[in-house]
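Task 17 of the worksheet. Students: predict the tertiary structure of the chain below and write it out as structure tokens. Keep your answer in the requested format; marks are given for formatting as well as content.
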Amino acid sequence: MTDAFQCVDCGWRTFYEKERCLECGGDEFEPWRPGEGELLSVTTIRVTPDGVREPNRLGLAVFEGGASVVAQLDGDLAVGDAVALSGDRQLSERRGSVRTGPQFVPAGE
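Model answer:
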């Protein structure tokens, strides 16, 4: 499971590093575990840049609190499936950590 971010001031949630909260303008975030989400949309990109898999299946999923994210799909996931977010993290000079290579996997794996 991969951490996301939650605004300390208002609780707004995001999967991507931000300078300011889009809801209240706060500038402090804490780690948040997204848990399970629902896959809302799936698409396949057939022409990709060098170094990106082809075809590249992507999905849009929504998680608790309305946080949504687009990520690569693992396996034969389909709209309506329960998913979890997987991916490595690297250190960031600005905030301390950012996500690299987010991917949806079936929930419970």
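Marker's comment: Residues 9 and 26 are 6 Å apart (CA to CA). The domain at 4-106 is CATH 2.40.50 (OB fold (Dihydrolipoamide Acetyltransferase, E2P)).
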